[in-house]
Amino acid sequence: xxxxxxxxxxxEGAVAVVTLSNAGRLNAMTRAMWRELREVFTxxxxxxxxxxxxxxxxxxxxxxxxISEYPSFRFEESSLREFHENEVWAALQALLDCPIxxxxxxxxxxxxxxxxxxxxxxxxxxxxxxxxxxxxxKLGFPMxxxxxxxxxxxxxxxxxxDMLLAAGVHGAQRLYxxxxxLQVLPDNEVATAVQVHADxxxxxxxxxxxxxxxxxxxxxxxxxxxxxxxxxxxxxxAEHREGIAAFLAKRTPNF
Length: 255
Fold this sequence. Notes:
Largest sheet: 6 strands, mixed
Number of domains: 2
Strand content: 15-25%
């Protein structure tokens, strides 16, 4: 049986929306969806694009991996390695490498693969009833090393250990308290709040956003020294000049 599921991109001006869709399975990720997710990001035409929203279809973010596929590849080391390193991690790395701000719109289930995808985003906004976890210990296997490091870095040691060692599932407030979420809102307000936040990002200087993302990546890698040679190359850029000029003239900048 071939699992269904798609990853789609819809662009509206300076903001684009990436939607995970696997009907009837809370948008659980199939192997094809992982490949599509990577292709969306590696093939992205980012000209004029200032923000990306990642969401799930139908009131769920992503419930994890599509387990119906697992017997076909998980029991051989080579195919298991291929899945995690060349499909899952390749997609997650494409998200991490994206120079454009990523906002996660989290509703309902955010489990396993879902929390990995959300961990790649810059800003995460969730509904009050959203649930977070990675209870794969119930399935008899661990989270792959690079995926575990990603989630551990995003949610912190205490929650990561509970999710992976005790199959702990936590509510949005707990993830907010841990610093993983920017906002927790009533479920029916999440989509609007995400759109407002994405539009706010899109109205700001895109060059500054990309440079900030480069700095954040260097901080994570412990390589900020590598940025110093080019850190001030933006000095004579049009956006830099426009931002300062607009402030002095008491007008809204036109980026």
